[in-house]
Design a protein that fits this description.
Blueprint (H helix, E strand, L loop, with lengths): L11 H7 L6 H67 L8 H20 L10 H10 L3 H12 L4 H17 L14
Length: 189
């Protein structure tokens, strides 16, 4: 006969835990690991995208500022400063009285140049950002095309005025026997 005294009693609760319908501690840990891994991967992906965008934006800003913004700003600022300097010179009491008639005409001319220079805005003389406009055309339909065309037509609308003012300022300087070299940044030519 059989001796059943050595057989352990069956723990039915434990058997139920090991059955496929009830997950084990290992299954629960695996699911938690998978969930955490997905969360961290998603967060890492988002952070990477954000860092990439910021890096590209900063690089684009740095290039645009160095090649376009600063040279144009410096040029317009120099012209404004030169006009203001001549205006101050003509307003000074040390100006020769024999040239009073011509100085009044010069005074009006340089004041007009200074006022017109103060109306020049960077956005109206900068070269068009063709890369951004091309991108806009690729991702817009219908009315976007019209907006891009309008942007291209209005780009640099004040540039001819800036060129005229520079030339007028050169004429005034020559009349006053002042000599200065007017460097024009390559992005304006």
């Amino acid at each position: 006969m059989y001796d059943f005294t050595d057989i352990e009693e069956v723990d039915y609760d434990r058997t139920i835990e090991l059955s496929p319908s009830h997950p084990t501690q290992a299954d629960e840990s695996e699911r938690e690991w998978s969930r955490m891994s997905d969360l961290f991967m998603t967060a890492g992906y988002r952070e990477g995208i954000t860092a990439g965008k910021e890096s590209a934006l900063q690089s684009g800003f740095d290039t645009g500022f160095a090649e376009v913004g600063a040279p144009i700003g410096r040029h317009v600022g120099n012209l404004r400063g030169l006009a203001a300097g001549v205006l101050a010179f003509l307003n000074s009491s040390s100006h020769h009285c024999s040239q009073l008639c011509e100085s009044t005409q010069l005074h009006d001319e340089i004041r007009s140049i200074a006022e017109r220079l103060s109306c020049i805005q960077f956005v109206n003389i900068e070269p068009p950002d063709t890369e951004a406009l091309t991108h806009a055309l690729e991702h817009r339909e219908g009315e976007g095309d019209l907006q891009v065309q309008t942007d291209l037509q209005t780009a640099r609308k004040d540039l001819p005025e800036l060129v005229k003012l520079k030339e007028s300022l050169e004429v005034v300087y020559k009349k006053l026997d002042l000599y200065i070299v007017f460097d024009v940044p390559s992005c304006l030519t």
